[in-house]
Amino acid sequence: MLKIAIAADHAGYEYKEILKKHLEKQYEIKDFGTYSTDSVDYPDFVHPAASSVENGENEFGILICGSGEGVSITANKHQKIRCALCWMPEIAALARQHNDANMIALPARFIAKELAIEIVEQFLTTSFEGGRHQNRVDKIAFC
């Protein structure tokens, strides 16, 4: 069963709970928080979730905040993370096909709950195309 990390800040909490409930039917979900709508600092939840994907404990990660930007920027500080900010299913598909994204960031304040589910489903069911894209992905990490 595919293992997925999920995390959110207070703005993304409601979406996290909806996505978690939807995805638990067919995936193993590890919830890294937050666990309420009380104001929090998103890096406190994103770093553990991203680390779990980076070290192979989870294959993919889903992050949610108001704009999706903060969680995406934070996750992408991890060397082996390729987190894509997605607001439509087509962007999620391209993030997987061309960039081999292993985490997705959603902007809860700008997309409907139903659309969030569609975007995540597209992300999780799309494969990396490899080929010409592999060479580009290999050049992303900078150390």
Report the uncertain regions.
none
Mean pLDDT: 96
**What would the CATH topology be?**
Ribose 5-phosphate Isomerase B, Chain: A
Q: Which bin fits the share of residues in helices?
A: 40-55%
Range of strand content: 15-25%
Class of secondary structure makeup: alpha/beta
How many structural domains in the coordinates?
A: 1
State the end-to-end distance. 33 Å
User: What is the CATH architecture assignment?
Assistant: 3-Layer(aba) Sandwich
Shape: globular
* Alpha plus pi helix count: 6
Task: Tell me the CATH superfamily.
Answer: Sugar-phosphate isomerase, RpiB/LacA/LacB
Task: Give the quaternary arrangement of the chains.
Answer: single chain
Strand/helix succession: EHEHEHEHEHH
Radius of gyration: 14 Å
Largest sheet: 5 strands, parallel
Biggest sheet: strands side by side, in what order?
Answer: 2-1-3-5-4
Class, according to the CATH hierarchy? Alpha Beta
**Number of strand elements:** 5
Pfam families: LacAB_rpiB
Protein name: Ribose 5-phosphate isomerase B
Family: Belongs to the LacAB/RpiB family.
Keywords: Isomerase
Task: Reconstruct the topology from this structure.
Layout: E1 3-8, H1 13-23, E2 28-31, H2 43-54, E3 60-65, H3 69-75, E4 83-85, H4 89-99, E5 103-107, H5 113-125, H6 132-138
Helix pairs in contact: 1-5, 2-3, 4-5
